[in-house]
């Protein structure tokens, strides 16, 4: 009589081995999910590492000025680049919204000697200061963004393979320059001189001066 032994032979051992491996893999995943084993890493995941050299202190500047006013500005930059080729092949147009700030200050470094005139009875004082100045405008890159952009076919291909960081740098520089110009033509400088005069009037009044004159000029 012919008898058939179930589970015997190479095929049966192979099936048992595969089932055992599958069971072990499931067990590892379950233990990892309940934090009984270290978390398993995705073999296809990417890890970002940021390294840098120690920060270098380049200079220390003595502060002898009064930051009297600051302004927030928003500017729209339309940056267009064209060539001899049709625009649908090569060329780009970027509409960029820039957010930035600028600070107006008064230099107190020359506040000595003839710049301060006190009357004989110390009841009056005259202070002469240089005109208010502007710091270089600062573009807030976190709040600035590209609103719209159109690119030719060759530009899109070039950006796909290597990108073009010069375009981004150009639009940042243009936005910063426009904010600087807007600050220069705004009321920021006048506001800085007004705030400086108010501050000095309060400080000198507390020192006992009854007549206080604060002027600005070169």
Q: Mean pLDDT, as a whole number? A: 75
Instruction: Enumerate how many helices there are, as a single number.
Output: 4
How many strand segments?
8
- The termini sit apart by 121 Å
Explain this structure:
This protein is of the alpha+beta class. The strands form two sheets. Strands 1, 2, 5, 6 and 7 form a five-stranded antiparallel beta sheet that branches. It has helices at residues 9-33, 153-161, 165-184, 188-206, and strands at 65-82, 91-107, 116-118, 124-129, 133-134, 138-139, 145-151, 211-216. It is built from four helices and eight strands.
Q: How would you describe this structure in keywords?
A:
alpha+beta; single chain; 218 residues; five-stranded antiparallel β-sheet; 4 helices
Concise overview:
With 218 residues, this protein is α+β, with helices and mostly antiparallel strands. It is built from four helices and eight strands; from the N terminus they run H-E-E-E-E-E-E-E-H-H-H-E. Strand 3 and strand 4 form a beta hairpin.
Topology:
Layout: H1 9-33, E1 65-82, E2 91-107, E3 116-118, E4 124-129, E5 133-134, E6 138-139, E7 145-151, H2 153-161, H3 165-184, H4 188-206, E8 211-216
Parallel strand pairs: 4-8
Antiparallel strand pairs: 1-2, 2-5, 2-6, 2-7, 3-4
């Amino acid at each position: 009589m012919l008898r058939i032994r179930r589970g015997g032979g190479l095929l049966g051992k192979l099936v048992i081995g595969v089932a055992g491996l599958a069971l072990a893999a499931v067990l590892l995943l379950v233990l990892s999910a309940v934090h009984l084993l270290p978390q398993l890493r995705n073999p296809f995941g990417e890890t970002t590492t940021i390294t840098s050299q120690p920060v270098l202190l380049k200079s220390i500047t003595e502060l002898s000025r009064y930051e009297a006013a600051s302004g927030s500005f928003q500017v729209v930059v339309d940056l267009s680049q064209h060539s001899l080729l049709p625009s649908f092949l090569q060329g780009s147009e970027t509409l960029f919204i820039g957010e930035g700030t600028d600070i107006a200050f008064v230099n107190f470094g020359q506040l000595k000697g003839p710049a301060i005139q006190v009357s004989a009875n110390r009841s009056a004082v005259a202070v002469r200061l240089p005109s208010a100045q502007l710091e270089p405008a600062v573009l807030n890159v976190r709040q600035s963004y590209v609103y719209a952009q159109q690119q030719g076919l060759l530009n899109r291909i070039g950006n796909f393979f290597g990108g073009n960081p010069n375009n981004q740098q150009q639009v940042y520089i243009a936005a910063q320059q426009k904010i600087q110009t807007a600050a220069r033509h705004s009321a920021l400088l006048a506001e800085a001189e007004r705030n400086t005069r108010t501050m000095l009037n309060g400080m000198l009044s507390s020192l006992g001066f009854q007549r206080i004159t604060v002027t600005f000029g070169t």
